[in-house]
C-alpha cells in the first residue's frame, strides 16, 4: 500500500470532537409494545464498480449456475436406476450424488457433510471474517440478484429514493409492478429448481408444463417461491442482522490476525468535507484526515453499515465499501485502501512503524483444517469399504419361544437382507451358535430348510423373511443363548452378520 510522504511515520492524528455515533440501527420511536419489529430506515444500496464487486458478480453467476443446472446433469447408473446426477429420491428412499448412492441406514454421511460445512465456515471466518456471508450465503446471493433487478427497473440510488417519496402515478405503479413481477419470476424459478432436486427434473418439467403435478409438489414450489420473494425482496439485510445466528458466533471465530473490512481511522480521522481552496497540508494542520465524509462507503453497503464506526455485527464482509472508497480516493488524488481488508495486528504495526505480516497458519486454522481432514478421510474410507450386504434380525417377543410336542423349542425371527447392488443376489443364511438347529421360512419352500437357508433379494431392495428356528430337546440350553445370524453372498462371498439370541425354558 502506498502512503503519502507526510504520513510516513504513521502517527495517530488528534481525535476529532466527540459526536454521536452513526449507528446502522434505527431506534424505535414509538411507545414500547406498539410494534413487533425495530423501525429500520430502508437501505438504498448504490451500485459500485471495483475488484470486490467483480468478485461478487463472479460468485453470484457461478453459484446460481450450479444451483439451476445441477438437477439437469445426467449420470448413468444402469437400468432401472435414476440417472439424475444429484437426486434426493424420497419415494425410493435413496440419495444419489454422482457415483455415490446413500441409503436411509447411512444417514451418518449427512452428519459428516454437516460437520464439514460447519468447520469449513469456521475456517473461512478465522481467515477472512464473514466472507461466507458476503459472497456465498444464499441470502446474500439472491438479495444481490434482486437488488440488481431493482436498479435496472427503478434506476440508481437517488432515483429510487425519489421514486419512493413521490406520489403514486401510472409510471410509478408500472415500475413497481415490473419490479415485483420480476422478483416473483425469479422466486418461482428458485422454488421450482429446488423441487427438481427431489424429483426427476425432465419428468417434473413436463408435468409442470402440462399442469399435471401433485399437490405436494405445488405446495413446496409455492413455499419456496414465497420465502425467496420475502427474504430477498423485503427482509434483505434484516435476515443477516436479526435472524441469522451466525452473526452472533463470528466474534468467537476471529482474532487479531483475521482479515476484516477495516477503516484506517489513524489515517482518515478527523472527517470533513473537501474544499477546493484548501491544500492537504492545511487540511492536516486543521486535524482533518483523508476521509472527506462523502458517505459512499455507507451508500453502497447492502446492510447500511457505516464501517467508519468500527467492526459491527451488521457488516457481512463483502468489501463493496472498499471499492467505493478507493474510487473516491483516486478522484481526489489520495492513496487508496483507506477502507481495506486488513488485520488488527497489521493496523497496530502500521501505527508503530513496524512491518506488516500475514499469519495464515495459527492454532485455530490448524485445528479446523485437521478436523475437516479427519472427517473427510473417515467418510472417504467408509465409502470405499462400505458393504453391499446388510442383515438385520428381529426376534419375536410374543411368545418368546414355543415348546413343541416332541420337546423341541422353536423361536421365530424376522430377517431382512439388504442388497445394495444393482443385481439380484442369493444368500446362504445360517445360525452360528446353535447345535442341530433346523431352519425354515414361512410360506417359502424354495428357500429350503435344514441347517441353512437360501434367501434371495432383488437388486437394490430389502428382502424380508419370517424364519423359524427349531432346536431339538437334546441340544436346547435353558435360558438365553447368543447366536450370530450369518448371510453369505453366494456370488461375491461377502458376509453379513447380526447378533441375536435363542430363548428356551
Q: Helix tally? A: 16
Helical proportion, percent range? 25-40%
Most strands sheet: 6 strands, antiparallel
Poorly predicted segments: 1-35
Gyration radius over CA:
33 Å
Tell me the number of strands. 15
Structural class: alpha+beta
Report the portion of residues in β strands. Answer: 15-25%
In words, what does this structure look like?
The structure is a single chain. This protein has 505 residues and is an alpha+beta fold. The chain has 16 helices and 15 strands. It has helices at 51-69, 108-128, 131-135, 138-154, 157-165, 170-196, 201-209, 215-235, 237-243, 246-253, 265-268, 280-285, 296-299, 320-332, 344-351, 363-385; strands at residues 86-89, 94-97, 100-102, 260-263, 339-342, 389-395, 402-403, 409-419, 425-432, 438-441, 449-450, 452-457, 461-471, 479-489, 495-504. The strands form four sheets. Strands 6, 7, 8, 10, 11 and 13 form a six-stranded antiparallel β-sheet that branches. A hairpin with a 5-residue loop joins β7 (402-403) and β8 (409-419). α2 runs antiparallel to α16 (363-385) and α4 crosses α8 (215-235). It is elongated and about 115 Å long. Residues 1-35 have low confidence and may be disordered.
In short:
This protein is α+β, with helices and mostly antiparallel strands.
